[in-house]
Amino acid sequence: MAQLFLPFATRGKQIELRAIEIKAACGCGPYDAVAPLELADRMDVGIVDAEAFFASLPERLRVALLETHSRSWSAGSITVADRLYVLLNPTQSEARSSPTLLEELVHDALGHPKSQLIEQDGVVIRTCQHDIEDEAYCVATALLMPYRELFNHLNAGLQLADLPVPAPVSDECRLFRVKRAGLWRLYSARQRQAS
């Protein structure tokens, strides 16, 4: 197997290898940028029709999820008859839902334990393992913005906003990827040179 072009930073390298592992399992190359819906299709993951789903809920619950607490959740997933289904929060922008869908796919592909709804002091809360959530988001951004293309783009002094990405993402998501890939110093230096 040929030598892969990977981040120098240990954590960045681990994240990139996890993204490459997922892509390989789905028939994609190590340097391919993967669109969320394409990966969902390759993994045979169903995307729940949010409009139909929320129309079927009682109004009180629909208002709670789509208005009162709409900023408190991004997605949910459930496995039914050995198939994963993902529900995305329809009140969020496509730039937010793109990495969110990939996060859900990463959780499934890497066999992460699912969070649980538990009752504590009469309040239902969702468990959260921050290290697992961090890994899922890091790998999701690596799927959207593979290291080799990101490195070459930044090293050429090009604007981060001009990096081709197969789905809409926010500027914050792009910067997160740069930092977690260990490229912040390179990015900053090239931007200073361009000024």
Can you characterise this structure?
Helices cover 51% and strands 11% of the residues. By secondary structure, it is mostly helical. The chain has one domain (10-194). The strands form 2 sheets. The chain has a 3-stranded mixed beta sheet with strand order 1-3-2, covered by helices on one side. It has a two-stranded antiparallel ribbon with strand order 4-5. Strand 4 and strand 5 (123-126) form a beta hairpin. Helix 1 (10-25) packs across helix 6 (130-144) and helix 5 (94-109) packs across helix 6 (130-144). The radius of gyration is 18 Å and the shape is globular. The mean pLDDT is 94.
Compact summary:
This protein has 195 residues and is mainly α. Helix content is 51%, strand content 11%.
Contiguous helical run count: 9
What ranges have pLDDT less than 50 throughout 5 or more consecutive residues? none
N to C succession of SSEs? HHEHHEEHEEHHHH
The value of Rg in angstroms is 18 Å
> Mean of the pLDDT scores?
94
Distance between the termini: 41 Å
Global shape: globular
Strand order of the largest sheet: 1-3-2
Q: How can the largest sheet be summarized?
A: 3 strands, mixed
- Give the number of DSSP strands: 5
What structural class should be given to the helix and strand makeup? mainly alpha
Range of helix content: 40-55%
Number of domains: 1
Question: How much β-strand is present in the residues?
Answer: 5-15%
